[in-house]
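Retro notes (design track)

What went well: tokenization of the new backbones is finally stable.
What didn't: we kept losing track of which sequence belonged to which structure.
Fix going forward: every design gets posted as structure first, then sequence, in one message. First example under the new rule, 490 residues:
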């Protein structure tokens, strides 16, 4: 746990500001969707807009109007900001606490599963997806913690408390419903036992009898369903108001591309961005080696059944079903992170008696987490872009507004000097209009950050605006171009 506290704090401290984290800061500050001036304004204005404190009712109202998430995490973040301050690192530390709570639950589940607890906790910490979600200011870590403790309570026979924890997890993140339903439908421990790490017999979580699966019983969790229901009703009240607010966020659904995304992001959750750190020539080889290693782990864990396997596959299967129903592909690395603790428990059972496999897994995980903390390839572009822009002797930075008006602007401003002036460009603006807005300036930095549909639409117009006569590029940096005004004909 001490090692986990150090690692997750390092993740929270060193990683650059991210797009989605800005909504957490703006919403809990009471300004969910600020309107930026048409003229250039200092980056410090963005940070000032994030310093307020919103009440729970205001957060709920703004969520139903402007976003697609339930309220529990944002309520927790608002209370945390009142107590510990509103900076990005301070809010990320709330997720670190949730991550530590998740690891404690992994230890409890492992002990009841006959799996070495400390090793299961260590391998869970080493998973890129787990450390990532436990180090950013979003609700994934809270939902993961509640799910894991719900399962721990279910194994202990405390089904009423388990149902409440599952419901709270759904109220922290809608996607938690897949793991919650899988856990509620699980048949429960069999009468057979398996030896624990201390030699004591423990109930088997493999779900196997001498006759095999044996089939699912009707859920033995009527009390759990009763305690779960109020949370689902509240979550549905939010969801029904939000369901149309993010149309076009994901590409249309197609089965094989969706399966490919699941495989790619699932592997990334376990091994991180290791292929990104090598040359383009070596990248296929590194990817193939990692794929073979993951297949070996899967082969070793192939006999696992029951709760751990069911909860590990619940999220990817749920995302596929969700995509097929709504004709989109809602598959991202952090969404699949709900499977990670259960996958890590399965991996622990597969490698703890194979020292060479365990050493290999720990080595890969160490490299993965080091990359998560330090490598820019694993980070969103705001930090590197703002650093490059700060080194240029420019009067303003021109950057796209993005879909929501806060993700790109907020993340960039978080990483930029407070005095740096920003000119925000919305999708649909013409190159002529952009040049007119920048007419009073002689040196500008163009920051073509294209991370969503609106920014992808705005960037070509931004580039065209300063490719016209009267401007010339004089320097290039990380995702930035420095332009200088010149007389016509020069």
């Amino acid at each position: 746990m001490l090692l986990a506290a150090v690692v997750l704090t390092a993740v929270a401290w060193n990683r650059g500001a991210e797009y989605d984290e800005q909504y957490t800061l703006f919403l809990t500050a009471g300004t969910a969707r600020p309107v930026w001036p048409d003229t250039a304004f200092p980056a410090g204005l963005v940070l000032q807009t994030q310093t307020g404190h919103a009440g729970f009712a205001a957060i709920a109202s703004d969520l139903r109007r402007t976003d697609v998430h339930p309220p529990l995490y944002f309520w927790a973040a608002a209370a945390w900001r009142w107590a510990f301050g509103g900076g990005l690192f301070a809010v990320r530390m709330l997720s670190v606490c949730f991550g530590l709570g998740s690891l404690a639950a992994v230890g409890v589940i492992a002990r009841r599963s006959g799996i070495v607890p400390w090793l299961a906790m260590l391998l869970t910490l080493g998973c890129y997806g787990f450390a990532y979600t436990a180090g950013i200011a979003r609700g994934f870590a809270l939902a993961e913690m509640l799910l894991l403790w719900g399962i721990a309570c279910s194994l202990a026979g405390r089904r009423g408390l388990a149902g409440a924890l599952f419901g709270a997890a759904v109220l922290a993140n809608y996607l938690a419903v897949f793991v919650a339903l899988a856990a509620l439908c699980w048949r429960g421990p069999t009468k057979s036992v398996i030896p624990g790490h201390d030699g004591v017999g423990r109930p088997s979580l493999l779900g196997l009898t001498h006759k095999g699966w044996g089939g699912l019983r009707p859920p033995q969790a009527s009390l759990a369903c009763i305690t779960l229901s109020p949370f689902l009703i509240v979550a549905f009240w939010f969801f029904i108001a939000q369901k149309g607010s993010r149309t076009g966020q994901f590409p249309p659904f197609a089965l094989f591309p969706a399966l490919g995304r699941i495989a790619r992001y699932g592997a990334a959750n376990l091994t991180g961005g290791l292929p990104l750190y090598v040359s383009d020539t070596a990248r296929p080889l590194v990817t193939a080696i990692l794929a073979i290693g993951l297949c070996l782990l899967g082969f070793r864990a192939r006999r696992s059944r029951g709760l751990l396997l069911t909860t590990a596959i619940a999220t990817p299967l749920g995302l596929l079903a969700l995509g097929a129903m709504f004709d989109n592909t809602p598959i991202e690395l952090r969404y699949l992170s709900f499977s990670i603790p259960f996958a890590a428990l399965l991996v622990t059972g597969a490698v703890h008696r194979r020292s060479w496999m365990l050493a290999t897994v720990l080595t890969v995980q160490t490299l993965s987490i080091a990359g998560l903390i330090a490598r820019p390839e694993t980070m969103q572009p705001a930090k590197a872009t703002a650093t490059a822009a700060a080194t240029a002797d420019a009067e303003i930075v021109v950057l796209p507004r993005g879909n929501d008006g806060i993700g790109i602007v907020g993340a960039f401003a978080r990483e930029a000097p407070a005095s740096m002036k920003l000119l925000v460009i919305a999708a649909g603006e013409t190159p002529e209009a952009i040049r007119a807005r920048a007419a009073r300036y002689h040196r500008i930095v163009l920051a073509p950050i294209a991370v969503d549909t609106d920014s992808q639409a705005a960037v070509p117009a931004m580039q065209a605006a300063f490719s016209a006569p009267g401007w010339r590029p004089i320097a290039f940096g990380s995702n930035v171009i420095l332009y200088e005004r010149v007389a016509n004909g020069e």
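Added context from the reviewer: Confidence is low (pLDDT under 50) at residues 189-219.
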